[in-house]
Amino acid sequence: MEAAETKEMKKKLKVLFRAYRRMTPNIERSLHELGITTSRHKNHIVLNVQNRSVPIGCTVSDRRVGKKIVSHIMSCF
Predict the structure, then answer these.
(1) How would you classify the pairing of strands 52-57 and 37-40?
(2) Contacts of 19 (CB under 8 A, 6+ apart)
(3) Which is it for the CA torsion 54, 34, 58, 47, positive or negative?
C-alpha cells in the first residue's frame, strides 16, 4: 500500500472504532469493505488482515480499546 492509502485507511478505522463497545454487523460490513474479514469465536473475534490474524475481544476492557485495535490492524500493513 502507498502512504496515502495507508493514511486514508487509518482515518477510516479510527472513525469506525471510535466508540467501540462490541462488534456489530455494521462494523463487520465496513471492515469487509476495507478488505478485512472477521471470524467469531467463543469470546474473541479474529480479524484477518493481509494473511495475519488480529484477535480482539467481543466486549471492551477499557476506553482505549478502539485505539489499540486500530494500532494492531495498522501494524499488519
Answers:
(1) unpaired
(2) 66
(3) negative
pLDDT, one tens digit per residue, over 2-52 is 888 889 999 999 999 998 888 889 999 999 999 999 999 988 999 999 889
Question: Which run of H or E residues covers position 38?
Answer: strand 37-40
The distance from CA 57 to its chain's CA centroid, rounded to whole angstroms, is 11
What count of residues does the chain have? 77
Q: How many CB atoms lie within 10 A of CB 58?
A: 12
pTM metric for this prediction? 0.83
Question: From CA 4, how far away is CA 47, in angstroms rounded?
Answer: 23
Distance between alpha carbon 23 and the CA centroid of its chain, in Å? 10
Contact 45, 56 (CB under 8 A): yes
CB atoms within 10 A of CB 72: 15
